[in-house]
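Good morning,

Attaching, inline, the C-alpha cells for the sequence recovery test we're adding to the shared suite. The designed sequence is right after.
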C-alpha cells in the first residue's frame, strides 16, 4: 500500500466492565493508521460492525476498490455487512482460517488501546466507557499519539501531509505557510 484509503483493516475486541463485557469494532486506514470508524456495543453481532463501517463511510470519501480486510468473524461475513461494503465499492478480504496474525495492524492497535487506555481506566458504566474510549480514539490516538512508522507523527498529521502531497503542495499548511519539521523526533525505523 502506498497511499490513503487503499486498505482498511477491521477487527473487534472485548472490554470488561465491572458487571459485563462490551465490544469494540474498529476500522483503520492501514497506511495512515488512523481510526476512520468505530462502534462500541453491549452486543457482539452484525450491528456492532455495521455501525463501525457506517461511521467510517461517513468520515471519508471512499474511492471504489478499497480493500477491506478483517478476520472471518460472522460479523464481517454477514449478508448485511457484505452488501454494505460492496455497495460502497469495497473489496473484502479475510484472514486465513485460524490465522489471527493475518491482521497484524488491527492486533497491534488493540494492544496499544488496551495498554494505553483500557487497562489504565476504571469505567463506571457503558456510557462512561463510550466517552473515555471515544476520546482516546478520536483525540489521543488519531490526533496526538506518535507512531514510529509514520516518522514520529500522529495519524492525523501524517494523513494531512499525505493529502498535501497528493494535491501537489508538499510541506505547506492549508494556509500556505511552511509546515514545521519535528527536529526532536528520531529517525523512523
Amino acid at each position: 500500500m502506498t497511499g490513503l484509503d487503499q486498505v482498511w483493516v477491521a477487527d473487534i475486541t472485548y472490554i470488561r466492565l465491572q458487571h459485563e463485557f462490551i465490544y469494540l469494532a474498529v476500522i483503520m486506514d492501514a497506511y495512515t493508521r488512523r481510526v476512520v470508524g468505530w462502534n462500541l456495543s453491549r452486543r457482539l453481532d452484525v450491528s456492532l460492525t455495521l455501525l463501525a463501517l457506517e461511521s467510517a463511510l461517513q468520515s471519508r470519501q471512499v474511492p471504489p476498490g478499497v480493500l477491506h480486510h478483517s478476520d472471518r468473524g460472522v460479523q464481517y461475513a454477514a449478508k448485511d455487512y457484505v452488501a454494505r461494503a460492496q455497495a460502497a465499492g469495497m473489496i473484502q478480504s479475510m484472514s486465513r482460517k485460524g490465522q489471527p496474525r493475518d491482521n497484524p495492524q488491527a492486533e497491534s492497535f488493540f494492544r496499544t488501546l488496551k495498554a494505553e487506555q483500557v487497562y489504565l481506566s476504571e469505567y463506571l458504566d457503558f456510557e462512561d466507557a463510550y466517552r473515555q474510549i471515544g476520546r482516546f480514539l478520536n483525540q489521543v490516538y488519531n490526533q496526538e499519539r506518535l507512531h514510529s512508522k509514520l516518522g514520529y507523527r500522529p495519524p492525523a498529521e501524517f494523513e494531512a501531509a499525505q493529502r498535501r502531497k497528493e494535491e501537489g503542495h508538499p510541506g505547506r499548511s492549508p494556509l500556505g505557510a511552511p509546515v514545521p519539521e519535528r527536529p526532536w523526533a528520531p529517525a523512523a525505523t
